[in-house]
Every structure is written in C-alpha cells, then in structure tokens.
Amino acid sequence: MRPILLQGHERSLTQIKFNREGDLLFSCSKDHVINVWFSHNGERLGTYNGHNGTVWTIDVDSQSRYLVSGSADNTLKLWEVSTGKCLFTWEFPTAVKRVSFSDDDEQVVCITEQRMGYQGAIRVFRLNFDGDGKDQDPEPERFFNPIGSKATVCAFTFMKNLIVTGHESGKVALIDVATGDEIQTNERAHMDIITDLQMGPDGTYFITSSKDKVARIHDTKTLRVLKTFSTETPLNSAAIAPNRPYVLLGGGQEAMQVTTTSLRQGKFETRFWHKVFEEEVGRVKGHFGPINTIAAHPAGTGYASGGEDGFVRMHHYDDSYFKSKPYGDLEIDE
Amino acid sequence: EDAAEESNISAELIAHRKRLVDEWNAWRARCRKDISDEKRSRGIRNDGREHGDEEKEEIE
What CATH number labels A3-323? Predict the structure, then answer.
C-alpha cells in the first residue's frame, strides 16, 4: 500500500474530510489555508484563502457544493466548493474549534472556545441557499453555553434536535439544541480531553478518541460504551472504516516531547483495530510526527491521515485488505 | 498434547468471537429499527426526502 503524499501545507494539519463520493479530500491547517485534493492521484484542485489564523476545522455538505470552516481568527466561513469563493463570514468573540453539517445540509453546528471572559458556546445556524448563498442570517438559530467542562467536538445525530458533544474532561453528552439541556451524559467516557468524534455509517454509533490513549465506540441513543480500544499513545483522531469491521486510530506524543521520543517506538502510526473484537490488527507507518487527523474514504477503499509534520498521506488499500479475513467467516453487520 | 491444548484455546476464542459478533449484529438490528422509527416520526421517506401530509408511503 503505497501512499500518495499530498504536499501543499506549510504547517501541521488540523482536520481532513472526504466528500460523500470520496473523490475529493479537504484539508485544513495551522498555515491558515484550506486545500482540496483529488483523492485518486493527490493532485491539488484548489485552495480556499481568507482565514487569518489557524483553521481548526472544516466540513463539506453531502452534495459537495458548500464548505464550512472554523478558525482561530474567530470566524466561521461558508465557501462555494467549486469556485473557492467565500460566501459568508460569521464573527465571534473567540476561536471556532469545531464545525459540522447536519445530514440534510441545512444546518451547521459550531463550537467556539472559552477564553478571555467568554464562555464556550455552541451555535446552530440554519443556512439559506435560496439565492447565491451570500444571504445568510448572521444570528444563530440556536445558541447555548454548555454547562461544566468545555466542549471540544460535536456532531448532529439521527435524532431530531439532538447533538452529541465531547468535552475536555472526557465527558460525552447528548444535548437538545432547542433548550441546551443535556438529555444523556457519560461523565467518564474518557479520562482526558476528547480529541475527535466521528459518526458511524448510519449515525447510530460514533467513535471518540482521547488523550487518555483510548478510543471508544458509543451507542448514540444511550451513550452506552460498546467498544474500547486501548493504545499506548495519546490519540488525536479516530475513524470508522466503511464495509470492513475496522476502526483507525492515530496520535502520538506532543511536539514538545518528540525530541525525547524515538520514531522507532512506533508512536506515529495509524493503528487498525477490529471494531467488534477490540483487537489490534495492523499498523501503517509514515508520518514524522503525531497524526492529528484521520478520515476514512466513504467507499471503504482507502483512508487519509494528516500529521503534525504538515503532510497528508492518502492510502488506497491493496487487494489483500479486502480479501483478508483475519477472524474467519463471521458476518458482521455495518 | 500441546496441539490439543492449542485447539482447545482456539475453540474458546472462536466461541468468544462468535458471541461478540452475535451481540453486535443483534444490536445493529435494533439500531436499524430505531432509524426507521425516527424517520417515520419525522415524516421522512426512506430515500431521505421529506414529504407532506398529502401522501403516506410505506417504509420498506
């Protein structure tokens, strides 16, 4: 499995996302730039210029028409994917740490950071695409300040008005955006900051990764922990592989500790775990620093990883990946 | 004797894995029901589009 190296970012990657078809890969970075790449050959299709700070987070709608991004420049931006034009900018008192589209593409949820006397906030915007996309409501449809530990990641769920959030304390919560009330919580989902949250194929389960070196699969409706994957390194990202029973985990020691950490300790590898048996099945080397973000190709044909080293590596699986049945012929439902 | 022991362990492991898969698949079946219930209550057809009151379509 020879990866394609996507070179174009000058600083570490913060998040990468495939579009629904998987032909495009979007990446954002501390270099203030968002890039879009053809996933099959790694060619850069375009860039989205306009942010004046680290771009922490991106998401693309299901039609690959619009992109949203959140940045340390305290803005949330809406972009037209095909032209690279910024259609609208929302401004906040603090940095935007996470954005995510709803399944119907009509709403965007965003988390703004708690800082300088401002509480962390979650806002839901309803987008308007009746015209050219530039006529957006500057005010959110929903706004609330999550109680307790600050939220780091979030996503819409398959249940109306309910979002799931991951927090600095390791808490996972199911929140009604209409009221801001926590419907369900698991205070001890993790023992440290939650770094990533990605939904499963139909949204009924999701995976979280944490600095506590553990990734977990949770039942979306009950927040019950279904599966636990314990590694020996702080995790920055976790993804669910479509069509095969694997999850992909990535992380590594913090940059300040890298000098004392040998590459050969294998901290910077993407780890493949069997999602039902909770057993590690393989590792993929490559990055020269921690892996910050992983995305699984939606067709299950590959994955991409974005590193602290500034590189994105796009992997297309070999035939052996699809043929191997390391645990026999048991049929596992998606 | 060793071989017999090994096959015994692997038989146990295989049984354990089978149990995990059965549990997982049973839970997935419940999830699929939750999804179709949610869609029905929201008035969304299985193709994901919303529909009004004018027509009721059977969810397969």
Answer: 2.130.10.10
